[in-house]
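Suppose you are handed a protein chain with no further information: no name, no annotation, nothing but its sequence. What can you learn? This example shows the usual starting point.
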Amino acid sequence: MQPHDGIDGFETPAPAESADLEALVRKFQKELNSGLIALVLLAVLDRAGDELYGYQIAKQLQGAADGEGAPVKQGALYPVLRTLSAQGLLTSRVVPSVAGPPRRYYRITELGRATLARWLGIWRRTRGFVEQTTEGVAPIDPRTEK
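A reasonable first move is to predict its three-dimensional structure. Written in structure tokens, the prediction is:
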């Protein structure tokens, strides 16, 4: 693809091929997911009120995706769960299973809840900024969610 002169003398890239566009979309989704997985995992475990193992968490995420399929693959959850545990945001324990390998159960800690509260505030401000700049929507007040 060779650039060409566009309107007002700006250099404009040649039209992207469909495969290029799909690659860009996948890359954007992957980058967006990588920044949000930890937030979503903490929220799921906070809402659960009890410990959950990876497959249960993945199922909850699928349910939250409203039939569109969770944008996060189940295998991508485990490294993030381990990282959150190492940071003290989750506790975990391994329990033997009669129907397969042992299961690692996760529970959110008080530090995890405090972190989640701060991250949610950041997320709401960021979401408001993105909506305001891309759609002209008035920003949402993160304190009232209105």
